[in-house]
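Q: Structure tokens for this one, please.
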Amino acid sequence: MLIHNFTETSSILNNFVAELRDIQIQKDALRFRRNLERIGEILSYELSKQLNYTSKKINTPLGQKDMRVPQKNLVLCSILRAGLPLHQGILNYFDDIENAFISAYRKHQTDIDFDIIVEYLASPSLNDKTLILADPMLATGNSLVAVYNVLKKLGNIKEIHIVAVIAATEGIRYIQDFFPDNTHLWVAAVDYQLNEKGYIIPGLGDAGDLAFGSKL
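A: Here is the predicted structure, written as tokens:
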């Protein structure tokens, strides 16, 4: 797996991550969603440098110009519900991308032990497509693996780009055993600890709840 970790990179991206983590700023759900969206935009720009490009002749009012533009074989899949603002940020930069949505949630057996349940999927064919898989928090990695096991049945995926806001080193190590070697992971920040419930420390809390409100 090719890991693009922006933790130590000095850019405005750091400010958006800092605001996501800030317990006081988190009280503004609109701002929280907007910061997720902006991070999606920045990571999309970085990701775009690794895509396949083709030459296209553009007609201007005064002549023609050959331009290099990305090939239109992209599918963006977000994990509901926390992935929706991140999805929008990526969508802002890839106008012609196809869209997919999948649900994955923790079904707890005990306070600590849980299974990942996937119940909903809406997706085009993934055959010979480049898949961008968006999930704000890469904690244990179980959700991403469960989702990938479903998505890979939809066709021969050409290449995978995972976009995350915060990832745990344990989760990164875990998913490396399940995703193809040429998979790219784009992550704004990496934390180094999970608590006993499998949440990232210091992380930011529950991204879905902070973006859309608490659930039962």
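A few notes: Helices lie at 13-21, 29-48, 83-93, 142-151, 169-175, 207-212. The mean pLDDT is 93.
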